[in-house]
Amino acid sequence: MELAEKRIALGITGGIAAYKSAELVRLFVKQGASVQVAMTQAATHFVSPTTFHALSGNRVFTDPWDSNTDKGLAHINFSREADVLVVAPASANFIAKAANGIADDLLSTLTLARNRPLLLVPAMNAQMWLNPATQRNVAVLRADGVTILGPASGEQACGEIGEGRMIEPEEILEDVIAFLQPKHLIGKRVLVTAGPTFETIDPVRGITNLSSGKMGFAVARAARESGADVTLVSGPVNQPTPRGVSRIDVTTALEMHAAVLRQANDIDVFIAVAAVADYRPKVVTAHKVKKDAGSPPTIDLVQNPDILSDVVALPNPPFCVGFAAESRNLAEYAEKKRRAKKIPLIVGNLIQNGFGGDENTLTLFDDHGQTQMASAPKLHLARQLMARIAMLLKENDAAH
Fold first, then answer.
1. Backbone phi, then psi, for 108, in 5-degree steps?
2. Percent of residues, the chain, with pLDDT higher than 90
3. Average pLDDT for residues 242-251, to the nearest whole number?
4. Does 354 have pLDDT greater than 70?
5. Is 170 in the same domain as 199?
6. Which end of the chain is less packed: N or C, by CB atoms within 10 Å?
């Protein structure tokens, strides 16, 4: 569970989007978090505190003068005992109060009294969001270190269409999980490749492999969680883009090569996870090749460019990480590949231990030797990989 042993203080303000916060509490609890809810009086007109009590298993606070607390005032307890304070939805009125230090109800008071990070999830009419006063208040909050999640754009309860919708509970959950991860790569620009490539034979056939893209997408998400600015170049896969990651879709190895080289001079780290086809047909036929009863067709192949090698060969290359998926002799083949490509780190795995699945077993090969990583979900492994990359980057900087 992503939020095991985490304590989340959730503030809910008045607005129709308050109904989404019930699902948000359910998601937090499902991921192992302990959730304590505080509501403004306006919020109770949209959703009953009883709903949040049932979903969280904890009392819901609405009164700043509540005396039924174990120690001190409710707002002090609320602030001191959480890992993070999330306000979702955060109305325009609440954002104004938070920006100006106004504490005239329980939620605004505990926000002012907090000693934990604050994440605000705006939800309001589009004109209210675009109003210069709201934009000034948001700018003040960001300058004060408050994280703003959203808003989204779309149809609103009032019937208008525009920016101001609260982002969905699943998106808030992902953002909160990301926020709580160690920030190993703040300020770094990371480029990741993922998935297979598809090399066309004719309009209906091609050469490809079984790569699902899951590992590469997990790496991109973990890099973003670590604080990096991440671009993902993906082959044809059915995977959702991680939040906050810029995605470039390609099909062939040549397209991936071109997309990577366009970015490669402006990045700090290149992580080549994609399973790029080594060869492509020399000639692509315009029409479907018909089956010949006499003999199968002959397909002449030419070699695709080696994307990782071409990035390493740049005059000022980024820190490069390769991946090696093998069916046998992993240590021998992975280390040989690392030395041949002259890269500081290669990540190896046996295809029978996770190719296409949700979990994997990885081994890291670098100048320190081999580091075996226990079998785990791919996202967990990707987070461990970010920590390793950060350590090696620090060593590299110290050496220069």
1. -65, -35
2. 80
3. 97
4. no
5. no
6. C
Which of the two residues, 75 and 360, has the higher pLDDT score? 360
Domain boundary among 132, 147, 179: 179
What predicted TM-score, i.e. pTM, was given to this entire model? 0.91
Residues 233 and 97 in one domain: no
* Longest Cα–Cα distance in the chain: 90
Q: What is the CATH number of the domain that holds 327?
A: 3.40.50.10300
- The per-residue pLDDT for 294 is 67
What is the number of domains present in the chain? 2
Average pLDDT over residues 62-80: 66
**In terms of domains, do 215 and 79 share one?**
no
Instruction: Determine the average pLDDT of the residues in 317-323.
Output: 97
For 258-317, how does the pLDDT look when each residue is reduced to its tens digit (9 = 90+)?
Answer: 999 999 999 999 999 999 999 999 999 888 888 776 678 888 999 999 999 999 999 999
Mean pLDDT of 232-250: 96
- Dihedral angle, C-alpha 8, 9, 10, 13, nearest 10 °: -160
Q: Are residue 45 and residue 19 in the same domain, yes or no?
A: yes
Q: Is residue 202 part of a domain?
A: yes
Q: Are residues 162 and 196 in the same domain?
A: no
CA angle (136, 224, 164) in 5-degree steps: 35
pLDDT band at 72; cut points 50, 70, 90 = low
Residues 245 and 143 in one domain: no
Name the residue range of residue 95's domain.
7-179
Please indicate, yes or no, if residue 1 is contained in any of the structural domains: no
Task: Say how far apart CA 319 and CA 385 lie, in whole Å.
Answer: 14
Whether residue 105 sits in one domain with residue 230: no
